[in-house]
Amino acid sequence: MRSLSRIGMLAALAALVSMFFVQPSLAAGTTAAGGPAGPPGNAVIAGYGCNHDACLEVAPEGGGAWVRCMHRPVPWRNITGHCHFWGPHYDFNEADRHMPPWEEGPWHWVNTQGVHCLELWELVNGGYVSRGLPCVSG
Q: What is the spatial order of strands in the sheet that 64-71 belongs to?
């Protein structure tokens, strides 16, 4: 039996998660072609998905997409932590920050489209605990 690489396992997980946790488009319309001038004021959210305490929004624009993280806790609570984003040709972490419930994080531009994923990490006693791993196509 052939074992999967970490990237292969993540791709398979992203496909499986997107089948069950991705909601259809939340807004209709189009965006301007070409590169972005800055974070979208009237972003067309083409993908939105949640898993446990983490939500991911994706707003495609031109050949890339805007992505952002939201902390959606049950039960209601504040955390300190960060989101780790990855997708086709990108992989980055936000800096740790205070996250009140349902606060939308900053938009990040990624110069690619496809399946986007994030993992929400809470800082607990000097270490990190995963609080959700949503993936969205966009």
A: 22-23, 47-51, 54-61, 64-71, 108-110
Torsion, Cα of 11, 16, 20, 26 (10° steps)? 20
Angle at Cα 103 formed by Cα 124 and Cα 80, nearest 5°? 15
Please, which residues have CB within 8 angstroms of residue 108's CB and are 6 or more apart in sequence? 66, 67, 68, 85, 92, 94
Three-class SS state of 49? strand
Residue 23 carries which side chain, given as an amino acid letter? Q
pLDDT in tens, 5-63: 444 444 444 433 333 333 322 222 223 334 455 555 666 778 899 999 999 999 888 88
CB 123 within 8 A of CB 81: yes
Tokens of 3: 């074992």
C-alpha 138/C-alpha 133 separation (Å) is 16
Q: Is the pTM of this model over 0.90?
A: no
What span, in angstroms and rounded, lies between the C-alpha atoms of 80 and 124? 8
